[in-house]
Amino acid sequence: MSSEKSAAFVEFRRELHRFPELSGREFETQRRIKEFVSRFNPVSLIEVGKTGLLLQYGADSTGPVTLIRADIDALPIQEVNEFEHQSRTEGISHKCGHDGHAAILARLAAHLAEKPLLKGRVYLLFQPAEETGEGAKAVLDDPAFAAIRPDRVFALHNLPGFGSGTIVCKPGPFTSAVQSLIVTFTGKVSHSAEPEKGINPAYLMADFILKTRQLTHPDSRSDDFALITPIYTTLGEKSYGVSAGYGEVHLTLRTRTSQNMERLTKQLLSVLSILSVGTGVEIETAITEVFFASQNDADAFEQVKTSALKLGYAFVKKQEPFKWGEDFGLFTQHYQGAMFGIGAGENTPALHNDDYDFNDDLIEPAARMFLELIDLQHK
Q1: Which stretches are transmembrane (predicted)?
Q2: What confidence score (pLDDT) does residue 139 get?
Q3: Which member of 58, 75, 113, 126 lies 3.0 to 4.6 Å from 53 by CB, making a disulfide possible if both were Cys?
C-alpha cells in the first residue's frame, strides 16, 4: 500500500477519534463512516442497529457468506492526551480503539473494491454500542440483518501488552462472560434515634457484599474462574437524623463461560434469599450489560492461525480467556466464527486508560488478516 493510501486511513481513524460518541448515540460516527466507505463501491450499504452500517461485497447467492465485524462506540472517559487528534468532546474519548477497528474495516472495504469476490458474499459490519453490550443484539434483531445468515463470523480487538502486529487467538472461549447485577434493598426509614422503628438495610447489604467474596475464584486459568467486583453502592441520604430505608449494590460478574455465569448468578440470588429471611427488607434484582463469552469455533481458530502464519505474522495461542467482555460473543452464540487479538505494543497504555491511543500501524496488517480469512472462505 502506498504511503498516500495509508495516510488516508490513518487520517480517517484520527477524525473518528476527534469526534467520539457514546454507545447508541453514534449518529455522526455513522455519517462519517458512510461518507468515507461509499467510495469503495459496496453492492449495498444499509443502516442497521439504529447507528450501525452494513456493507455488502459480492452478489453470488449460492456461495459462502462471511461477516467481518468492527465496533464504533467510544467511552465516557476524559482524554489526557494532547496530540493534534485529541477528542474534542468533553468527557468522551476512544479509549478502547474502536476508532482503529473501524479504520481497519474501511481499509478492508478498499481491498474488496480492488479485488472483487468471485464466490459468495462478504458483509462488513460497523457495529454500535459494544461497550454496553446492546449493539450486537440490536443488529441481530434488525430485520435488515435477518436474511444474511453468515457461514463464518470474525472480529478482532487490539491488545496493548502484546508485540505490535502479533496475532493472539485460542479455541473455545476467547473473552469472558460478563454481566452486571443490580440489587435494591427496600426497608423503612425512621428517626436515627429510634432505628428499631424502621428497617435499615445497611447490615444486610454489608453481609451480602462480604458473602460475594466467598464465591470469587480470581484465577483466570481455572475453569471455575469467577470474579465478582463491587461497582457502586448507595444507602440512605446525608440526613443524620434519619435511619436509612433504601440502598443499592451493583456488582459486575465475570466467568469463563456463559454456563458458569448462569450458575454464579443463581448462587448470588440464593445467598440474597437466605440472608434476607426475617429482615423485613424487600429485595429486587436486575441484570444489565450482558456479554456472552466469545466462543471460538475450532475450525475458525485454525483459519485464524493459518492466515497469520501465511502472512508471516507472529502468532500466540492464548491459554485462558481474557477477563474482559465483548458483545461479539452474541454472534458466536448464533454463528460459527472466531475473535482474535492483534498486539498494539508491549509498552502502550492499557485499554480504557485515559492516556490510551490506537496504534495506527495496525490498520494495514489487520485488514490483510481479514482479507486472508475471506480468501480462505471464498476460494
Answers
A1: none
A2: 98
A3: 126
